[in-house]
Amino acid sequence: MDAQTWPVGFRCLLLLALVGSARSEGVQTCEEVRKLFQWRLLGAVRGLPDSPRAGPDLQVCISKKPTCCTRKMEERYQIAARQDMQQFLQTSSSTLKFLISRNAAAFQETLETLIKQAENYTSILFCNTYRNMALEAAASVQEFFTDVGLYLFGADVNPEEFVNRFFDSLFPLVYNRLINPAVTDSSLEYSECIRMARRDVSPFGNIPKRVMGQMGRSLLPSRTFLQALNLGIEVINTTDYLHFSKECSRALLKMQYCPHCQGLTLTKPCMGYCLNVMRGCLAHMAELNPHWHAYIRSLEELSDAMHGTYDIEHVLLNFHLLVNDAVLQAHLNGQKLLEQVNRICGRPVRTPTQSPRCSFDQSKEKHGMKTTTRNSEETLANRRKEFINSLRLYRSFYGGLADQLCANELAAADGLPCWNGEDIVKSYTQHVVGNGLKAQSGNPEVKVKGTDPVISQIIDKLKHVVQLLQGRSPKPDKWELLQLGSGGGMVEQVSGDCDDEDGCGGSGSGEVKRTLKITDWMPDDMNFSDVKQIHQTDTGSTLDTTGAGCAAATESMTFTLISVVMLLPGIW
After folding, report:
1. Which SS3 state, helix, strand or coil, does residue 339 take?
2. Which range marks the domain in which residue 169 is found?
3. What's the number of CA atoms in the CB half-sphere (13 Å) around residue 333?
4. Any domain includes 68
5. Residue 16: inside a domain, yes or no?
C-alpha cells in the first residue's frame, strides 16, 4: 500500500471498527446526534437526551434498544426528510430545467430579432425601391410584423387576417403612387374603397395566398415548439415540489434519520432498501416516463421537419421578396386595375400632391454599415438541433429518477455495512420492486395507493402537447394544399422542402433563384440611413442602389435574382 492510499484505508478500517462497536455495544452518548440536530437547524438542543434512553412514544423510529430521539425530534426529522427529498429532486432536475428554460429564452429572443430583421428588410424595400410610398407603408409593415410576433408568442391572433390586412392596406398605396401616380383623392373614403376592393380585383394575384400558406406552415410549428418548451418547464417545476404521501414521509424518515436515533449518524441505507423506498415514493412520478419520452420524441420530429417551407427563418427573411413580386404584378396589370377600380369606386377627385418620401440623412450615407457575417452554425435550425441532441439524453429521466437518487446521493456503496430500516447489516435481504405503480404491490417498505391527481393532470397536459406537436409535424409524403389565385383554382404540391411557390424556384416574374446572406443584428438605435447598399444581381448586370433613411433599425442583405430587374417609371 503506497503513501497516498494508506490514510484512506486506515480511515475506512477505523469507520468499520466504530460501526461495529456501535452495533455490538450500543451508543454511550447522544452528543453527535445533538450536534447534527442543531447543525441542521431542526431546533434547540435544550431538552434533547444526553445519553440513550427508552423511547416508548416514538411512532416510526421504534427500537428495542435505547434511543437518542424524542417524539418532537422524530417530528422534526420527518419534516427534514421531506425537505431533503425535495432538495434531491430539484438538484437532479436542475440541469434539465436549465437546458429547457435557457433554450426557450434563447429561441424567443432569436425569433424576436428575426422578426425585427425581416421588418427591416421590408422597410428597406420600400425605402430604396418604392420610396414615394415608404412612409405611408411603414405603419402597415410595423403592424404586420407586430402581429407575427404576437402570434408566435401565443396571442390569439389569426395569420390569415393579418396577412389580408397587410395586403389590403398595401393596395391603395400601390394604386395611388404607382398605378395612378402623383394624384390622390382629397378624402379617406376613396382610399378605403380601394382597400375594400382589393380582394375582388386581386391586384397581387395569388401572392397573398402564398404568403398565407408560408406563414401558416412556418409560424404555427414555431409557436407550438415554444409552447411545448414552456410546458416542459412547468412539468419539472411541478414534480420538483410534489406532495409526498404520509406513507412515503414515514418511509423517508425511517431510511434517513431513524439511524440517528441509535447514534448511527454516518450510516447510509442499503441499495435495495433505498430503491424500495424511493421507487415507492416516486411511483406516481415514474408514470410520467412514457409520456415524457413521447414529448421529447415529438419535439425532435417537429424540429426535424421545420425546414424549407416550414423554416420560419427562410419564410420571414424572404417575405420582402414576395412583397416586391406583389407590387410588380400590380404594376404590370395597372391598366386593368385602373378600369376595375374606376368601376367599383368611381373616378377620384384628381388633386396633384407631393409624394411623401423617406427622410434622408446625407451625413450618414457616406459612413455605410459595419456587418459581421453570421456563421452557419448560428442559424435557428442548428440551435434547435443542438438543443434536441442534449434533450434526448433525458428521455428516460422520470423512469430512472429513483435509481439515480439512490446511486448518486443516498445509498451506501457496494460491500459496505448499511442500514436496512432496523439495524446495520451486510446486505439487504428483502425483495426489491421495480419502477412504476404496478410494481409497488409487493413493496415491503412503502404502501402506494391510488393515483396522484397532480401527476394525472401533468400526464393529460403532456398527451395534449404531444398531439399538438405531432399535428404540426408534416408527414413524409407530399400533401396537397388548395390555393385560389386570381385566375381560378390552383393546386400546389407542398412538401417540407422549399419549392417554386415558396420563392426558391420559379415565380410569376420569371425563373428566380434567391439566396440570402444573413448578417448579425444591428443596434436598435441605428437608422435606415446607415444602410449603404442593396445588391441586386441578375443574369448579366449589377445594380447598386445607394440610399436609405426610414426610421428603423436594419442591416445589409445580399440576394441573387436571375430575372429582369424592372425599374418602374414614376416610383422615384
Report:
1. helix
2. 79-350+381-439
3. 19
4. no
5. no
At 345 the pLDDT is 85
- Radius of gyration of the chain, Cα coordinates, nearest whole angstrom: 35
Residue 537: strand, helix, or coil: strand
Q: Report how far residue 200's alpha carbon sits from residue 167's, in angstroms, rounded to the nearest whole number.
A: 12
Contact 143, 163 (CB under 8 A): no
Cα–Cα distance measured from residue 529 to residue 549, given in angstroms and rounded to the nearest whole number? 4
Q: Are 571 and 130 in contact (CB under 8 A)?
A: yes
CA dist., res. 522 & res. 123, Å (int): 15
Distance in angstroms (rounded) separating the CA atoms of residues 474 and 204? 28
- Tell me, letter by letter, the H, E, C secondary structure of 171-240: HHHHHHHHHCCCEECCCHHHHHHHHHHHHHHCCCCCHHHHHHHHHHHHHHHHHHHHHHHHHHHHHHHHHH
Look up residue 445 and give its amino acid.
E
Q: Which helix (H) or strand (E) holds 455?
A: helix 453-472
pLDDT tens profile 181-216: 755 555 688 888 988 989 899 999 999 999 999 998
41: left (phi over 0), alpha (psi -120 to 50) or beta: left
CA quadruple 194, 200, 201, 206: dihedral sign:
positive
- Identify the pLDDT of residue 346: 82
pTM recorded for the entire structure: 0.72
Q: Is residue 62 part of a domain?
A: no
Q: Does some domain include residue 288?
A: yes
- 449: helix, coil or strand? coil
Nearest to 534 by CA among 369, 334, 419, 413: 369
Number of domains in the chain: 1
- Distance from C-alpha of 475 to C-alpha of 183, rounded to nearest angstrom: 51
Q: How far apart are CA 287 and CA 399, in angstroms?
A: 8
Low-confidence ranges of the chain (pLDDT < 50): 1-25, 360-377, 475-572
Closest-CA residue to 244 (of 63, 512, 446, 105):
446
